[in-house]
């Protein structure tokens, strides 16, 4: 399980229990950390030269990212750009996919 998946599991666990000030702070901290992780991944350069063609799995992963409301706007926008692109992924794009959706791989 990746760090993101562990954080999401912890967040769901916290949210499933009765609300206390400590749990609310913990949930807010986890949500902020997830947003920072997404923003960091989305702002990485997409350059680095051609890495490979986009695969069916990449396309499905990008569609999931676009439709995931828990992701920040930057991640969803970059996923949309990749879906609308020329079908090629740069090394930076591959790193982006690995960073934001590595928990399912």
Please describe the structure with a list of short key phrases separated by commas or semicolons.
single chain, 105 residues, mainly alpha, two-stranded antiparallel ribbon, 5 helices, 67% helix, elongated
What does this structure look like?
With 105 residues, the protein is mainly alpha-helical. The protein is 67% helix and 7% strand. It is built from five helices and two strands, in the order ααβααβα. Strands 1-2 form a two-stranded antiparallel sheet. The longest helix is centred in the first third of the chain and has 22 residues, at 21-42.
What is the structure about, briefly put?
The chain has 105 residues and is mainly α. Helices cover 67% and strands 7% of the residues.
Strand content: 5-15%
The helix-strand sequence is HHEHHEH
The main sheet comes to: 2 strands, antiparallel
What structural category characterises the helix and strand content? mainly alpha
Low-confidence stretches: none
Distance N terminus to C terminus? 10 Å
Assembly category = single chain
The count of strands amounts to 2
Q: What spatial order of strands do you see in the largest sheet? A: 1-2
Mean pLDDT: 83
The count of helical stretches stands at 5
Query: What is the gyration radius calculated from CA atoms?
Result: 15 Å
Instruction: Specify the helix fraction band.
Output: 55-70%
The coarse overall form would be elongated
Topology, pairings included?
Layout: H1 3-16, H2 21-42, E1 50-53, H3 56-67, H4 73-83, E2 88-90, H5 91-101
Helix pairs in contact: 1-2, 2-4, 2-5, 3-4
